[in-house]
Design goal:
The chain is of the alpha+beta class. The chain is built from 38 helices and 60 strands. This is POC1 centriolar protein A.
């Protein structure tokens, strides 16, 4: 049989059903499939919408070569996603003779009517062959090369139209209003930007057509609105996800087009792009199916962002963030704030927006926090919320500025795994970053991780290709106070401009003056003020929705209340959402009508808030009842002053009420939130402000006197702790701690002092001080143990200092003394206290001064370890020792506010001298905590550094002539200037024959008024700085000048301590946001030995040993005039540090420089004109300083001569010579603002002198064991900071006039200490020095005569073959003094006598007991022994740990019994049963007694 040619006409269908829950009628179409040869063929009708009886009348030509060929018919209902089939029916060609055919489908009642006609073979042949050829070509094409019928631009336009319609018809699903709003704004923006750019991209066109088809659901939705049909919750959820998916797809299209945040098309950038297109399309199809079937969404939102599993990465424990749980925070009503949400969306998705920060302000109660929470929720749902951090002044951890950046970093780490890796890397590299200054935290924990995530990586897609990331910061005005949030405001104002382009930051706050001052002038911060209008439409919508619920709850008639009353209530709200929400809660009571009428009385709206609160309080209970008023005062007062919200259970514990507090609180639901197991909180801060102001609340019964309630809260906290501490816990060193305090005790331990210091003069502070003293004299150490358990001990020094100040104000001496002791104890032993609570009493307390109240109240020698004779009698002036073990300090300086210390120095190896090749660095320290405040910055050479006048910058000048400006918080380089950039090139030789300057005068202290004979020469440098060789001591690295010469034996280094981990060292060109000053590849050996900055930082002067001074205008980046000379040093001497013999006047108008011949030269800064020479010193000037007023100039030289000058006229105001006899290498180091001078010597001791009298004034500062290299007074003169070579940095209290007492010590750490045979004497030695000490009193025993070889007779060898006479004498002495084994004999055989440093003193009764105990201890008791650097107590089960330093432990199992405080570094030791003698790194030697019960008790634990 020949070929068969037919015409098939699809006419119509009947009986089509619709399974969609949203559409009432189907969208029908038919597909026809058959096989031509081996190739499948398909025809498809058009889609006829919204009818059960579609009519097509479409004709199709069929061509077959076999009667047995089958034709497959399938009919569909085109849904919003996939098509729903009515089934398939197959027919063979043979029976299909020309006729009418009805085809029934198996699913439902659908019947398809077709007509078959026979086609003329000849006339159709050519057409048929053409069709076949065309089909063959189409089939050979790739499957994805299909014909596109709708352009991308048209599809986007259709979606915009559909969203516009949806905003009008979605009243029945108000909760999707915000999402419609955001989706419309997003799609509209992309529609405008993309235009026709993507119309040839078939994949994108197909995706957008799928999205546009899905939006056909708006048609049946409009019908449902007309029919007043409510959408069920499932369909609402589906529509909501469609809108969210639309937003994400639109942002993807924006990036795909190259018009997005990445600034380039991601079409060909990543291999996953095509797959992402297909995934988006599949998501829309799936959502369409959910719409049709009325099923909830089963699939997750498809985002342009990479889906990744963000793990905890152990960051929570390292960052210790504040808890950010916003489940219970209110959000905007779905139909309110739509305009504001549209504005926010437009700003967020605009890649060209110049502003990175949107700052939203408004009155209290305007709805800022509600708006912030709504935005955070919306962007969290689509995976674009980077972080939501909100401040709350009622929650201390959420109001503390120091918690903010750690919390922000933690929240960001939860947003994206790439950000999390960057943050984890920063924490791993610098374990102290979470304790450092906020600037450093922002850089390392926020800015750099975001930049790393947004940078191109070899691993895959970067964050920059995925659209915006939103950070929301709410209630900034509730962050601390103006003083404590100052640094944070600076960061938010300045540093946010450096964030990646994709990051959008939203900040809400009141318009506080300091916030306005910080933000208003920043171009990258966009400000938006929330308007408060008396007839705000959003307020009306909100109140109507709330009234609808009240109406239904109370079975009121529809339309309650009357429209007029509604309008009046809206007017009363005055645009304040807090008023509206509080009013609705107030009306939602037993009698809503009466409550509504009550609120409608009165006028105005700002005053109306107070009126509203008054009405809410008045209607809450029986104010005539004294009991009710008392309960209100006690319960609400407690809530008002709580530093952290507490539960009703804790309130009940504090107040010891018989009736649960929740009963009363339930009456105040309109203003106070309380629920089971949740902290009680006042709903809005305006209510706290209302009840704490008698002027506002008027009625005394409503008034909460904050100071009185702070007093009560303090007493309640103390009572809770006293109950807890009645049974003190016994701690074993190293034991795992169990946190078993309840909320009341935890709160009390954390905040009792905060309550105490908040009590003002109006309350009975004396009575409270007595209560506090009674508590502290029993439980101070118990409380410190609790803070150690709670991990809050590091914050105790600052709060104890405030308690000490409060006690001084009150005027109670005992309380003041004990608070001071506690403050000093918590400060100095901060590391030990934080380590473990067991160390507080057993380890730290024995080292407290004997005369302190703390020691006298809590130390019991029968129970606790004892330092024989006491470690110190009074508190040392040393406030804190900074843990710097790997850097030899060159320069130290305070910040203006004394909160930071900057230091420079060279990193060193213990066994190597400093030779100039070390990595020099700048480090910054937090004075309060002792931790580093910024990452260290590596430099090329020895340098000086100082803070700018505002403390925001660090200015650095190096020995190679480089000048750096660093950010004091982050260490970022702000500018760089190297010597060959500023150096002035010589133009011509100066005319040395010119006449003298008439304004130049020379002054001598004995010859005032003589004129200088000739003008100075002003010339170009005789040699470039590169030829200046800066020499150092190659044997020790200790400077061989300015009184700091030391032998190798005296240059002490740590050969046992490993350097503590320090924050990541940051080389200067690290920051991708750095402007990047270009420096030449200069190789300079160095040569500048002194430098100085002007007070405003504009000028910097370098000086070298030849006397040449180079004055540089740092802002102009050039040397201002020719090099100045005449300030040569007396001789070339090897130095390490740069010394302070150049100084600017306070107004920067002049500067002075000292010379080697003892002269002082003064020049005018602007012109370089020398106008004074001051003569009087005979030795080199090495220290100069102006008084704060600029009317005096102080000078000092190495011979002890200190002079005071009038820097205007050159008069010698005063001259004194300090008696430096007995001071090894006297070295003046610093002048204080009030005219005191600090000096040092080779042993590291610091002395303070009155520059006007030459008398020493207290206190003597002993603590360094190497020569002090630098020191600086604070601006108020009360503090001193010092740093030493290969030693630490210390801060000192120099405000008092303490006695000029010294404690005996070695100048360097003793290498060896040993007990005498009786144990009553300790011998300590180091090269070239030997000392003896009383084991009982701890006092030094002076040798008479002194001989460093003296030792105990039993340790002297008898068989000296080289000196038979000496050997015989020794043998004779041993027989003679056999009953006196402590006898001392020198190497020459002479007897040495020991004399007590207090010869007339007698042993006390306790000291006699100690003496007997020492003599009774058996040194042959092998259960005690000395091994290497450890002391080991034997016990029947054990091993030894070689890593511990200064630890007493059991040898068998390594259990710790006792150890030295972590603040001390152990150098040497010897041991007798229960007695240990230590030599430590600060040169001290002492004997420690460990009571046997301590050893026995720990042995049995």
């Amino acid at each position: 049989m020949g070929d068969i040619h037919l015409i098939l006409v699809v006419q119509k269908a009947t009986g089509l059903g619709c399974k969609s829950t949203l559409r009432s009628k189907p969208n029908g179409y038919v597909t026809i499939n058959w096989v031509l040869g081996s190739r499948p063929q398909e025809h498809r009708t058009q889609v006829v919408k919204s009818t059960t009886s579609p009519l097509w009348e479409e004709s199709f030509r069929l061509f077959s070569q076999s009667m047995d060929s089958t034709i497959t018919f399938e009919m569909f209902d085109k849904g919003f996603g996939s098509s729903h089939s009515y089934g398939t029916v197959q027919k063979t060609v043979m029976p299909m003779t020309p006729r009418l055919i009805d085809i029934s489908f198996p699913l439902g009642d659908a019947i398809l009517s077709i007509r078959v006609e026979k086609e003329d073979t000849d006339s159709a042949l050519s057409d048929t062959l053409a069709d076949a050829q065309r089909a063959t070509r189409d089939f050979a094409k790739a499957p994805n090369q299909t014909k596109v019928t709708t352009s991308a631009y048209t599809s986007l336009g259709g979606v915009v139209d559909s969203l516009s319609k949806l905003m009008e018809i979605a009243d029945s699903a108000a909760q999707i209003h915000p999402y419609i709003n955001v989706a419309w704004k997003t799609v509209s923006s992309v529609y405008k930007v993309v235009k026709n750019q993507l119309d040839r991209d078939e994949a994108i066109c197909d995706l957008l057509e799928t999205m546009a088809i899905l939006y056909g659901f708006t048609v049946p939705l409009e019908v449902m609105r007309r029919d007043h049909t409510e959408l069920d919750s499932t369909l609402v959820d589906v529509i909501k996800q469609i809108l969210q998916q639309t937003i994400e797809c639109s942002l993807f299209v924006q990036e795909y087009s190259g018009k997005g945040f990445a600034g380039r098309s991601i079409k060909h950038t990543f291999s996953t792009t095509d797959e992402r297109v297909r995934t988006f399309k599949a998501a829309f199809i799936s959502l369409g199916n959910s719409l049709d079937m009325g099923l909830s969404v089963q699939n997750a939102l498809v985002s342009i962002r990479i889906a990744s599993d963000v793990q905890d990465l152990a960051l929570r424990s390292k960052l210790n963030p504040a808890e950010m749980e916003w489940t219970g925070r209110p959000t905007c009503h779905p139909r309110t704030r739509l305009d504001m949400l549209r504005t926010i969306t437009e700003w967020i998705i605009d890649p060209k927006a110049k502003s990175r920060v949107l700052w939203i302000t408004g009155l209290a109660g305007a709805g800022k926090s509600t708006l912030a929470t709504t935005v955070a929720n919306m962007y969290a749902e689509n995976g674009r919320l980077g972080a939501f951090v909100f401040f709350d002044r009622d929650v201390k951890e959420r109001s503390d500025p120091t918690n903010f950046l750690r919390t922000l970093a933690y929240e960001l780490s939860r947003c994206d795994v790439r950000i999390a890796k960057g943050i984890k890397g920063a924490v791993d590299m610098n374990s102290r970053i979470a304790q450092m200054q906020l600037d450093a935290q922002f850089k390392d924990l926020v800015r750099m991780p975001l930049f790393q995530a947004a940078s191109d990586t070899a691993e895959g897609q970067s964050l920059a290709d995925e659209g915006p990331v939103v950070i929301v910061i709410d209630s900034l005005d509730e962050c601390g106070n103006e003083s404590t949030r100052k640094q944070l405001l600076k960061i938010l104002a300045k540093e946010t401009a450096k964030l990646p382009k994709i990051v959008r930051v939203i900040i809400t706050s009141r318009s506080e003056p300091d916030i306005v001052g910080a933000f208003s002038k920043e171009s990258h911060i966009k400000h938006h003020e929330l308007e408060v209008l008396p007839h705000d439409g959003d307020i009306s919508v909100y109140i109507q929705s709330q009234f609808k619920e009240i109406e239904e709850k109370n079975y009121f008639d529809e339309g309650w209340p009357a429209p007029d009353k509604l309008r009046r209530l809206v007017s009363r709200a005055g645009g304040l959402f807090i008023w509206a929400s509080t009013a609705c809660r107030y009306i939602d009571c037993y009698d809503p009508d009466a409550a509504l009428e009550d609120l409608l009385q009165g006028e105005g709206f700002h005053e109306g808030l107070d009126d509203l609160y008054s009405k809410a309080l008045r209607g809450a209970g029986d104010w005539k009842s004294p009991k009710f008023k008392d309960e209100f005062q006690s319960i609400v007062g407690t809530i008002s002053v709580a530093k952290n919200p507490i539960t009703t259970e804790t309130i009940d514990k504090f107040l010891k009420t018989k009736v649960p507090s929740k009963r009363l609180l339930s009456r105040f639901a309109s203003v106070i939130h309380q629920a089971d197991n949740e902290p009680v909180r006042i709903l809005h801060k305006s209510f706290s402000e209302f009840i704490s102001s008698l002027a506002r609340c008027v009625e005394p019964m409503y008034f909460i006197n904050v100071s009185d309630h702070e007093h009560r809260a303090a007493v309640n906290c103390i009572a809770q702790m006293e109950v807890m501490f009645k049974r003190p816990r016994l701690f074993t060193p190293g034991a795992i701690l169990k946190l078993d305090y309840d909320e009341a005790v935890t709160y009390s331990c954390s905040y009792w002092i905060h309550h105490v210091i908040a009590v003002e003069d109006g309350s009975d502070r004396t009575k409270l001080a007595l209560t506090v003293y009674d508590f502290m004299k029993v439980h101070t150490l118990h409380w410190l143990e609790a803070t150690s358990i709670l991990k809050t001990s590091r914050s105790t020094p600052s709060i104890l200092e405030q308690l000490y100040q409060w006690a001084m104000d009150v005027g109670m001496d005992d309380m003041t003394s004990l608070a001071y002791d506690a403050y000093r104890f918590a400060t100095f032993f901060a590391e030990t206290i934080a380590e473990h609570p067991a160390l507080i009493t057993q380890v730290a307390l024995p080292f407290v001064p004997l005369e302190s109240k703390l020691y006298q109240l809590f130390h019991d020698h029968r129970e606790l370890p004892t330092v024989m004779g006491g470690y110190q009698q009074k508190w040392s002036p040393s406030l804190r020792v900074f843990p710097i073990l790997d850097t030899s300090v060159i320069c130290v300086s305070f910040s203006p506010d004394m909160t930071k210390v900057v230091s420079t120095g060279a990193r060193f190896d213990d066994d190597a001298p400093i030779n100039g090749d070390e990595n020099n660095c700048v480090r910054c320290w937090d004075v309060a905590t002792g931790t580093e405040a910024m990452p260290s910055v590596e430099l090329e050479y020895t340098s000086i550094a100082q803070f700018s006048s505002d403390g925001a910058q660090v200015w650095v000048a190096t020995g190679q002539g480089s000048v750096y400006v660093l950010d004091a918080g982050t260490g970022d380089r702000l500018s760089t200037l190297i010597w060959n950039q500023w150096l002035k090139k010589p133009e011509h030789s100066p005319d040395v024959s010119r006449s003298p300057s008439p304004s130049l005068r020379s002054w001598r202290s004995s010859d005032a008024g003589s004129n200088l004979g000739s003008a100075p020469r002003s010339r170009a440098p005789s040699r470039p700085p590169s030829s200046m060789h800066h020499t150092m001591s190659l044997d020790t690295g200790i400077p061989q000048s300015h009184g700091l010469e030391q032998s190798e034996a005296n240059a002490e280094t740590s050969d046992s301590d490993s350097a503590q981990s320090s924050p990541r060292a940051t080389s200067l060109p690290m920051d991708p946001t750095d402007p990047g000053d270009v420096a030449s590849d200069l190789n300079v050996e160095g040569g500048f030995t002194r430098a100085a900055f002007s007070n405003d930082g504009k000028w910097v002067i370098f000086g070298d040993d030849s006397g040449e001074l180079y004055v540089i205008d740092r802002e102009a980046r050039k040397q201002t005039y020719d090099t100045l000379d005449d300030c040569s040093r007396l001789e070339w001497r090897e130095v390490v540090r740069m010394f302070p013999s150049i100084v600017f006047s306070p107004d920067n108008e002049v500067f002075a420089a000292g010379a080697g011949d003892g002269k002082i030269h003064i020049w005018r800064t602007e012109s370089g004109e020398k106008f004074l020479e001051l003569e009087g010193h005979t030795k080199e000037i090495i220290l100069l300083a102006f008084s704060p007023e600029g009317d005096k100039l102080y000078s000092a030289s190495e011979d002890g001569n200190v002079r005071t000058w009038d820097p205007v006229y050159g008069d010698a105001v005063g001259s004194v010579t300090i008696d430096i006899r007995g001071i090894t290498k006297f070295q003046p180091m610093a002048f204080s603002p009030d005219g005191r001078m600090a000096s040092t010597s080779t042993d590291g001791t610091i002395q303070i002198w009155d520059a006007s009298t030459g008398e020493e004034v207290g206190p003597v500062l002993q603590g360094h064991f190497n020569a002090v290299s630098s020191m600086t007074f604070s601006q108020d003169g009360s503090k001193l900071v010092s740093g030493a070579f290969k030693n630490n940095i210390q801060t000192w209290d120099v405000s008092g006039k303490d006695e000029l007492t010294r404690f005996s010590r070695h100048d360097r750490p003793p290498h060896k200490v040993i007990f005498s045979p009786s144990g009553l004497i300790v011998r300590s030695s180091r090269p070239n020095e030997t000392k003896f000490w009383s084991s009982v009193t701890g006092r030094e025993l002076k040798m008479d005569p002194y001989d460093m070889s003296a030792t105990f007779i039993k340790d002297i060898a008898e068989d000296d073959e080289n000196d038979e006479e000496l050997a015989s004498k020794i043998k004779e002495y041993k027989e003679k003094y056999s009953d006196a084994p402590d006898t001392l004999v020198t190497s020459s055989g002479d007897i040495v006598t020991l004399v007590d440093s207090l010869p007339d003193s007698e042993l006390s009764g306790l000291e006699k007991e100690w003496q007997a105990a020492i003599e009774g201890s058996n040194p042959r008791d092998l259960t005690w022994k000395y091994t290497d650097s450890r002391i080991v107590y034997h016990h029947p089960k054990t091993i030894i740990d070689d890593d511990d330093d200064g630890v007493v432990k059991y040898e068998t199992d390594g259990q710790e019994i006792w150890r030295l405080p972590l603040e001390f570094r152990h150098r040497s030791n010897d041991i007798r049963p229960n007695f240990i003698t230590f030599g430590i790194w600060n040169g001290r030697v002492f004997v420690m007694h460990l009571p046997q019960k301590l050893v026995t008790r720990n042995a049995t634990v």
